[in-house]
Amino acid sequence: xxxxxxxxxxxxxxxxxxxxxxxxxxxxxxxxxxxxxxxxxxxxxxxxxxxxxxxxxxxxxxxxxxxxxxxxxxxxxxxxxxxxxxxxxxxxxxxxxxxxxxxxxxxxxxxxxxxxxxxxxxxxxxxxxxxxxxxxxxxxxxxxxxxxxxxxxxxxxxxxxxxxxxxxxxxxxxxxxxxxxxxxxxxxxxxxxxxxxxxxxxxxxxxxxxxxxxxxxxxxxxxxxxxxxxxxxxxxxxxxxxxxxxxxxxxxxxxxxxxxxxxxxxxxxxxxxxxxxxxxxxxxxxxxxxxxxxxxxxxxxxxxxxxxxxxxxxxxxxxxxxxxxxxxxxxxxxxxxxxxxxxxxxxxxxxxxxxxxxxxxxxxxxxxxxxxxxxxxxxxxxxxxxxxxxxxxxxxxxxxxxxxxxxxxxx
Length: 411
Ligand code: NIG
Ligand code: FE
Hints:
Helix content is 35%, strand content 21%. By secondary structure, the chain is an alpha/beta fold. The strands form 2 sheets. Strands 1, 2, 3, 4, 5, 14, 15 and 16 form an 8-stranded mixed β-sheet that branches. Strands 6-7-8-9-10-11-12-13 form an 8-stranded parallel β-sheet. The radius of gyration is 21 Å and the shape is globular. The protein has 2 domains: 2-72 and 370-410, Urease, subunit C, domain 1 (Roll); 75-361, Alpha-Beta Barrel (TIM Barrel). It has helices at 88-95, 100-105, 110-118, 122-138, 154-170, 193-211, 228-240, 257-263, 277-283, 294-300, 307-312, 333-344, 348-355, 357-361, 391-394; strands spanning 2-12, 32-41, 44-50, 61-64, 69-72, 74-76, 141-147, 174-182, 216-219, 244-249, 268-271, 289-292, 318-319, 380-383, 401-406, 409-410. N-(iminomethyl)-L-glutamic acid is lined by residues 109-110, 113, 220, 248, 251, 296, 322, 324-327.
């Protein structure tokens, strides 16, 4: 299988030498080739250049991309797309004035989704979830992290992991599974959180480790959920089974999860709607990617991550959808890129860097995904005709995607 794309108006994120992360000032630069061609064989980028340098190449499929932008597929490093049913009832309750915390305190929220998931067969859960994946692939996502966390029992968490494994086997997109070991405290453990944490550390983590599906571990570090001591206990238990942290921190309160994540070499710290100077200091000289989730801020009406503070301090930033039934029921990365510009005050170049190479970094795959570099995976978006790549965020909430190539296959 070989594909040649010619007359590309702008080919984005082109790097001769493999980059794996962009930080601070560098995020403002997006390396582009005007009037370019791109040649891929099987699942790999073989060659690219400007049309001036082009010499005829025989390919099985040739695409004339006149007037179109070609860029690496979106890398969505934070989702919860394996879930059962929806929470439209709670959505209306929130419109009518209840807060996310009010809903959770009545046994709704994550507990509501867990009940639904526990009562859903593995087959049905797979069918509901793969449909969401197919939907986001069509919108340009080529690599996606998927978390467990709606099980809240050993059996249901392992069921989620098996569903993610099956999705991974059945899709061309890259899937990064994460064990969201501690997402909420089940009703029956409300008065005995320690017992639940023991269940997580002594049973769930070892069993999940044995399945060998996921190599990341997540904890929702938040008031009313898991505090900083719980976080440390769970991350330490995860380390024993080679799980690297990717954690939910600073969504509604600052508990110190950023520094603790850095201390445990977290690959990413996600949400960060609240952020203090200590958090920024902790992230400097770390290998930890801060991840903003503007779809969650939009949907819940909570503050947007102060992304400028992070980038202006010389740090990297990734953006992701957080696609989940409670706080962000959309996996549209095009919208996320638009929201990052309009609300996080990222430039289009910063937003595209955050949604491609840095998103790939936040899944541990930026050596193979997220840029146009010889030898990297052939995952691309070919846009509808447009004048400039800036139209991608500018025309927010429209769909700029015309065709996609995933793993070298034109879909
Ligand atoms: O990332 N904050 C924790 N977890 C999800 C939401 C979970 C839910 O409400 O179902 C999030 O926002
Ligand atoms: Fe999340």
